[in-house]
Design a protein that fits this description.
Blueprint (H helix, E strand, L loop, with lengths): L16 H15 L4 E4 L8 E5 L5 E6 L7 E7 L22 E3 L4 H51 L8 E4 L5 E6 L2 H6 L1 H8 L3 H4 L5 E6 L1
Parallel strand pairs: 7-8
Antiparallel strand pairs: 1-2, 2-3, 3-4, 4-5, 6-7
């Protein structure tokens, strides 16, 4: 009896789901309008990515985990680093639209979804993040200017204070001010402080409400 041994090199290579998804990215890049290049993927779970040579827009391909699920999802990127802390679509009530496709789905169908839905939605989210960042910077600038203005006035009003006033901005445009001074100085300034705290709305409309505490 003769036994025939098949060499390992003669066995057909096993193609994984990741391999299939990476190959699908090539067909999708060809089907997309414009000139696109295919890479090995830069994200943690990406097996491939396609990038537009004209705009730099990139879309990653991630296989869907789980046995028997021969599907993959498209992931937009890259995200500008300065927007990392304000780009919150993963944690919003209206999550970023991420489509999944069966491995073997027509490349033209996937390319159409990328071109007409995924990329426009990604740009809308980037615009929202840019707006949120600008608004946050404006608030921070305003608070910094307000704190500096308050500190300057307090330094002029209390030149003999042993320590400068401590200013803490709370939510809703509230500011807490802590003054440290000698008891005699504090007693002498009670009328002035009381008058400031009793100021009518017309006088304080343009200023921020304050909480003043005096301690030794």
């Amino acid at each position: 009896m003769t036994t025939t041994t098949v060499a390992a090199a003669d066995k057909p290579a096993r193609i994984s789901k990741g391999d299939r998804v990476a190959l699908a990215a090539i067909d999708v890049a060809i089907a997309l309008p414009g000139k696109w290049t295919v890479g090995r993927g830069r994200g943690l779970n990406e097996v491939a990515d396609v990038a537009c040579l004209a705009t730099g827009v990139r879309v990653g391909f991630e296989p869907v985990s789980g046995p028997g699920e021969w599907r993959y999802r498209l992931v937009p990127g890259d995200l500008p680093r300065e927007l990392d802390d304000v780009f919150l679509w993963y944690r919003r009530d209206d999550p970023f639209p991420v489509a999944t496709f069966a491995v073997g789905a027509p490349a033209a169908e996937v390319a159409t979804d990328i071109h007409k839905r995924l990329i426009p939605a990604f740009h809308q989210w980037l615009d929202r993040a840019q707006t949120a960042r600008r608004e946050r910077l404006q608030i921070q600038t305003r608070l910094h200017k307000a704190q500096r203005a308050i500190a300057d006035q307090l330094e002029k009003a209390f030149p003999q204070a042993p320590r400068p006033a401590r200013i803490f901005f709370m939510s809703d445009d509230l500011v807490s001010i802590t003054l440290t001074m000698d008891v005699d100085d504090a007693l002498a300034r009670i009328p002035t402080l009381a008058h400031a705290l009793r100021a009518d709305d017309a006088t304080t409309a343009s200023s921020m409400p304050t909480e003043t505490r005096e301690k030794k």
